[in-house]
Amino acid sequence: MFSILKLAGKNIFRNKRRTTITLLAIFVGIGSVVISKGIVAGFQKGIIDLVTRVKTGHIQIHTKGYLDALQLMPLRLYIKELKKTEKIIRKQKEVVHYARRINFTGMLSTGEESTMFMGIGIEPKSEFKICRDLLSGIIKGKELKGFSPYSALITNQLAKGLQVDVGDTIMLISHTINDTMNAVDVQVEGIVQIGTPVFFSGNMLITTLAAAQKLLDMKGKVTEIIIGIDKIENLENVAETLRGKFNTKRMNLEVHTWKDIVPYYKDTIQAQNVILWIIVLILLIIIGTSIMNTMMIAVFERTREIGVMMAIGTERMQIFLLFLFESLFTGVIGSFIGCVSGALFVCYLNIIGITINLSGELRSVTFYPYVTENNITFSFLFGIFVSIISGIYPAYLALQLKPVDALRYV
Fold first, then answer.
1. Comparing C-alpha atoms, which of 224, 36, 42, 210 is closest to residue 131?
2. Helix (H, G, I), strand (E, B) or coil at 111
3. How many Cα atoms within 13 Å fall on the side-chain side of residue 300?
4. Which candidate, 329, 327, 261, places its Cα nearest to that of 296?
5. What is the spatial distance between Cα 245 and Cα 227, in angstroms, rounded to a whole number?
6. CA-to-CA distance for 350 and 363, rounded, in angstroms?
7. Helix, coil or strand: residue 401
């Protein structure tokens, strides 16, 4: 067997030009796989960070039926056993932080002008530990860290329509949880650009949880809890664990991941994965065809040589393995070069980043491709697999040659 391996290693460089072309095809193909997977991985991580660090957190807790009726902002579907729920959340070792919110609607008035708005009441200190990029779209005013109990962030569209600026006082009017009307004065602390993930609508407003609770007569009540976890890989496990504990304790709660809350981005990731596999399939065909052509030419060129080997007693299986190993060695060398080159290029992209404009965003977003062990392992084994599969048919042709016919071949 060692002699077959040694001979196969020498044979791949007998025709250096053809071997170089084949290695180039494998190098380009495997390198493209590494780069494609690295870019897609970086883009998907960027999407997840964009959503979870600005809008949703990794996981959200609601009363059953709340998410289905979210457009109505149902205040009566607040989380009933809040302290018990928080205790269960705190016991999960993967949970890094959590924050409480109230989603609500109402009317915003300056005394002269008024308009409808969609509001979120948050606890700034807790919120920013999860949604760290919440203020990425602020264009004027103070950061939310300086929130007073009765302050608000509004979109530039609301500010322009109501002719208000940072420091002005506006009135929030809304139905309370008891279906009575109430109003609270808040100060405009900041103005945010429309199009950022939180301010997806021109009539969005963010205020403190204390102001929202006073406005809605919901002291000590919240409509949702957002959770930040240590690793995105733990997302489903944490969600399932929480669901199990809530069900065991017969709590009327639902657990939603960011995928449930913003399915558009989940669908985008799934579409990317499908496209990636199509690219891999195309590259498989290109690499496989190149290797198969090279090995078939090698069989035809060495027909007399094969005949001589058979005539002196070389077993057919040894000849089969000889050509198969030649194909394998070619694939290993090309895949190694492709993986190294592709990884270096992805590392370069990770340093400079790729800036694009997402649909629905008015600002650019920069993603950073990266290489993982799984990416390199898959790409390298993919190249070897294609090489072996592509070498089987040419090796089989060599196996079927008859010594007498092979020796007469010119």
1. 224
2. coil
3. 6
4. 327
5. 16
6. 20
7. coil
Pick from 250, 269, 209, 205: which is nearest to 49 by CA?
269
- Secondary element (H or E) of residue 203: none
172-190 confidence digits (pLDDT tens): 999 999 989 999 999 998 8
* Torsions phi, psi for 227 (to 5 deg): -130, 140
> Which spans in 97-196 are helix H?
124-130, 156-162
Residues 6 or more apart whose Cβ sits within 8 Å of residue 277:
none
Query: Is residue 329 within 8 Å of 339, Cβ to Cβ?
Result: no
Enter the pTM of the model.
0.76
How much of the chain is in helix, strand and coil states, percent to nearest 5?
Answer: 55, 20, 25
In the chain, the amino acid numbered 43 is F
Reduce the DSSP state of residue 278 to 3 states and report it. helix
Instruction: Give the whole-angstrom CA distance, residue 98 versus residue 92.
Output: 11
Lowest mean per-residue pLDDT among 247-261, 273-287, 339-353? 273-287
Asked if 61 and 255 count as a contact pair (C-beta separation under 8 A), the reply is yes
Contact 218, 75 (CB under 8 A): yes
Give the residue among 321, 338, 322 at the shortest CA–CA distance from 382: 338
Taking residues 19-24, report their average pLDDT: 83
User: Is there a contact between 132 and 220 (Cβ–Cβ < 8 Å)?
Assistant: no
Query: Which token pair is 342?
Result: 């592709």
283: Cα separation from own chain's centroid:
23
pLDDT in tens, 363-382: 567 889 999 999 899 999 98
CB 339 within 8 A of CB 29: no
Closest CA to 222 of 125, 77, 90, 96: 77
* pLDDT per residue as tens digits for the range 223-252: 999 999 998 889 999 999 999 999 999 999
Q: What is the mean pLDDT of residues 292-306?
A: 72
> What are the phi and psi torsion angles at 328 (to 5°)?
-65, -45
Give the mean model confidence (pLDDT) for residues 124-143.
Answer: 77
| Residue 282 φ then ψ, to 5° | -65, -45
Q: Is there a contact between 223 and 103 (Cβ–Cβ < 8 Å)? A: yes
Burial letters for 362-400: b for 16+ Cβ neighbours within 10 Å, e otherwise? Answer: eeebebbbbbeeebbebbbebbbebbbbbbeebbebbbe
Q: Retrieve residue 306's tokens.
A: 């094969």
pLDDT at res. 210: 92
* Residue 178 to residues 2, 51, 108, 391, 396, Cα–Cα distance (Å): 85, 33, 20, 76, 81
Q: How far apart are CA 124 and CA 209, in angstroms?
A: 8
